[in-house]
């Protein structure tokens, strides 16, 4: 019997994903204000410094480098880059809008027209190449003034400021952009990520209060979007890490389930199902957490849930109750070493089957369309003298993950409609501010110290992914 090759759904959205603060550059041009990303120094101590109260949230070029300041200069080279995306055959491009490019201080009375015009230009360029924009409203770059003057997302006033921002960009682009996401990897706020909740060393009470404000803000944005254009699709976005219990010890399994609920499900439960889950309410009671919930908040969250669920998937996580087990970390989470998996250059364990498990788990739980909005291999790419990069390791990683997505769709019945690998063009790493941690199909000649021509070069994976898109996922060889 001849085996019939299974394909992805017709009109499946193949593409790539980026974030404004990691590729645009032009951090202080055309009226843009400072963001939390702009005061984040480059280097492996980035996160440690940001957590330290001794580190002022200021720019000090005598002590630190700030790779985000020039990114890869997408601000001036977007036409060139979008042409390369079109050459690969992108159906969608996930990008973000910099809040501070529109409202420099976050609380301004009027938007910055130059910022709006820039995104007009980018969106029009994408549409010219028949690439559907997917826009994230807030991707790890809250305006710095909202941290210094208001204390970050624990302050209810940020809901009002975000509403003004969301309304401004939705009114401007609702007739051009169908797919939107509100907060990037919102569940990192459970652990108090500075990039997510824009607070340093906050208490657990403050973290959950900040998240409540983001849930309200997300529902307000969804309401505005649907009122402007009923065809708009608004999604939430979180990290998902498939979790395994290290052994069959009931205590280990229980620990895994508790971790799974608060990391993988909590934010999605609220934004997709529209209410605080019972396990979270119980957790709040046990830990003395009392949220300041205003009248109407819960109705808003209930009535304006998201249309689809998007998530980043890079690795799975093993939960153990044995303190002697070897630990690993990556992408805002930790766990125990999985002896069955290999790891990337940065120690992130590679688990393609875990993506299939994640897709099945999420679709069974929520029953809404899914969008894999980030996935990819951060690796050290070494070009030869002619800037030829044979990144077979990246092709192998992506091929295996794409194969598992296909199985999730055709064997498990999952409604998956989009896939945008992270960093489709090399950009600045969020966790370390490095350029050497590369994800792209396109190499950018720039090193960790900011040296290089910034010229773009196609990697071997460029043509491979082009063939994958052209064949709608059939080209796996």
- The tally of helices reads 15
User: What is the percentage of strand-forming residues?
Assistant: 5-15%
Number of strands: 14
The radius of gyration over CA amounts to: 21 Å
- What is the name of the CATH class? Alpha Beta
Order of helices and strands: EHHHEHHEHHEHHEEHHHEEEEHEHEEEH
Mean pLDDT across the residues is 94
End-to-end Cα distance, whole Å, is 21 Å
Into how many domains do the coordinates divide? 1
From the spread of the alpha carbons, the general shape counts as globular
Query: Which spans of ≥5 residues are poorly predicted at pLDDT below 50?
Result: none
CATH overall fold name: TIM Barrel
What's the CATH H-level homologous superfamily? Glycosidases
Strand order of the largest sheet: 1-2-3-4-5-7-11-12
CATH architecture: Alpha-Beta Barrel
Biggest beta sheet attributes: 8 strands, parallel, barrel
Helix proportion: 25-40%
| Structural category | alpha/beta
């Amino acid at each position: 019997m001849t085996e019939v090759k299974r394909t992805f759904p017709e009109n499946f959205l193949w593409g790539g994903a980026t974030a404004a603060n990691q590729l645009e550059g032009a951090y202080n041009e055309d009226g843009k204000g400072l963001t939390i990303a702009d005061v984040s120094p480059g280097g492996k101590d980035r996160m440690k410094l940001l957590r330290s109260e001794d580190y002022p949230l200021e720019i000090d070029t005598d002590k630190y480098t700030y790779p985000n300041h020039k990114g890869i200069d997408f601000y001036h080279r977007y036409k060139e880059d979008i042409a390369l995306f079109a050459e690969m055959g992108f159906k969608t491009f996930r990008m973000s809008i910099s809040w501070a490019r529109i409202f420099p201080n976050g609380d301004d009375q009027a938007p910055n027209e130059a910022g709006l015009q820039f995104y007009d230009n980018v969106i029009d360029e994408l549409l010219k190449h028949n690439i559907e924009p997917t826009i994230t409203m807030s991707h790890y770059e809250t305006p710095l003034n909202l941290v210094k003057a208001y204390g970050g997302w624990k302050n209810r006033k940020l809901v009002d400021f975000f509403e003004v921002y969301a309304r401004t960009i939705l009114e401007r682009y609702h007739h051009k952009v169908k797919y939107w996401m509100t907060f990037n990897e919102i569940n990192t706020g459970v652990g108090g990520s500075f990039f997510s909740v824009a607070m340093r060393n906050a208490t657990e009470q403050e973290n959950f209060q900040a998240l409540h404000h983001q849930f309200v803000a997300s529902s307000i944005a969804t309401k505005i979007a649907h009122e402007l254009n009923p065809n708009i699709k608004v999604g939430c976005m979180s990290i998902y890490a498939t979790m395994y219990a290290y052994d069959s010890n009931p205590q280990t399994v229980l620990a895994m389930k508790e971790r799974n609920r608060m990391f993988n499900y909590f934010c999605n439960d609220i934004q997709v199902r529209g209410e605080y889950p019972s396990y979270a309410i119980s957790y709040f009671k046990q830990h003395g957490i009392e949220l300041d919930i205003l009248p109407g908040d819960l109705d808003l969250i209930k009535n304006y849930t998201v249309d689809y669920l998007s998530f980043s998937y890079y690795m799975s996580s093993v939960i153990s109750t044995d303190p002697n087990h070897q630990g690993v970390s990556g992408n805002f989470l930790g766990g125990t070493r999985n002896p069955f998996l290999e790891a990337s250059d940065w120690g992130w364990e590679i688990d393609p089957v875990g993506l299939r498990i994640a897709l099945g788990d999420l679709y069974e739980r929520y029953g809404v369309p899914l969008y894999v909005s980030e996935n990819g291999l951060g690796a050290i790419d070494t070009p030869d003298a002619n800037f030829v990069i044979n990144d077979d390791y990246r092709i192998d990683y992506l091929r295996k993950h794409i194969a598992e997505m296909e199985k999730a769709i055709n064997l498990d019945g999952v409604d998956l409609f989009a896939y945008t690998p992270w960093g489709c063009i090399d950009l600045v790493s969020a966790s370390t501010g490095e350029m050497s941690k590369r994800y792209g199909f396109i190499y950018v000649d720039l090193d960790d110290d900011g040296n290089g021509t910034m010229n773009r070069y196609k990697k071997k994976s460029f043509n491979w992914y082009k063939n994958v898109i052209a064949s709608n996922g059939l080209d796996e060889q």
